[in-house]
Here is the input.
Amino acid sequence: MGIFRKTAAVLCCTALIAATGCGNSSKVKEQKGQVEISFSWWGNDARNKYTLEAVDKFERLHPEIKVNCSYSEWSGYEKRNRVWMTSDTECDVMQINYGWLTDYYNEGKGYYKLRELSSTLDLSGYDEDVLRYGTKDGILYALPIAMNAETVYINKTIYDQFDAKVPGTWDDLFDAAEKMRPAGIYPLSASSKSMWLYLIAYAEQKQDKQILGEDGNFNFGAEDFAVMIDFYAQLIDKKVMPLVDHYERIRLENEEYAGAIAWVSDAKSYFGTAVENGREIVIADYTVNVNDRPGEGWYAKPATMYAVSRNTEHPNEAGMLLDFLVNSREMAELQGIEKGIPLSRPAVEVLGEKGQLTGLQYDASQKMEGCALSELSPVLENERIIDDFFSACNDYIYEKAELDEAAESFADKLAEK
Here is the structure.
């Protein structure tokens, strides 16, 4: 069983994760001089494997601390997290999504103040401009692990077959579609959230204003959303992309799609097989109008974050585990760039020494860092807003509403939220 030695206790905790939560340390007794803390995360089998191995190494370094692990796939994890946070049963140390910092901030009562863990958590390897992503009202509550942005991945092998240019402008997409359409190949593809953010980039460039104002509220009105809806309809009509309702990732692997809009952190999962099969996958420039600056209308955010429970009874030990997760050589070597290029300088130095700062995901990260992308507000990842937007798009595409009617309908729903 190797690193999966976490025994039935871990598996039981995982299986009962929805019902019982993590059982924060207020409910855990210290036994035989050991302090018990809990740690939760989400991920696939590969992430679970290396994280469990890292926890094992941490426990060997600190035999006075026992770490109880709770982990699962992403599906359903957010709902379970909501149960934990509202019932005070969250783990001592937890992986959180960027938007959760806002969702559970609760006027400063959502997470532990990390700067109070200075005796065990070393923040010197983080730049202050990075730490602001985990800061609310001037107080640091979460540590970003790596940065993330939607990125344009292109299967250049396919593009070359059709003598198509790797797209850098919106017009390039339509030129590629004209060449690939007879073969039934889409030049690009995207899930609903990726398409939504892609259309925002187009509309911000077209309308010369940002979708959100400085106050964080929507700055776009019905006429701006009409630009997004109309452009989406053009992309569908000209076979640049499939409808988001028809998007199937397996068709990317089958090379029915010649590219995809996906997060930096998705590079390997989306295109690892293609690279292994000898396909040339390239990171295209962020799509812009001819005269726009690179990155105009595009957004970046922390890929994922770590936080400590405000209810922990063992903050110092929780700080030790968190420090190990972001700064240690052991974790850096095991994790590599699976979650993106680490923001912790000690971790980056280790990866540099090991020659791990290479590959498609690293290239995507470098492209992201080379452009001044705007900070993605959690508001723009609201699933209900995205669903309402594409419902309005479908009304227009399937001729159930005129363009202005569909845009007005979406704007009205947005105003109600």
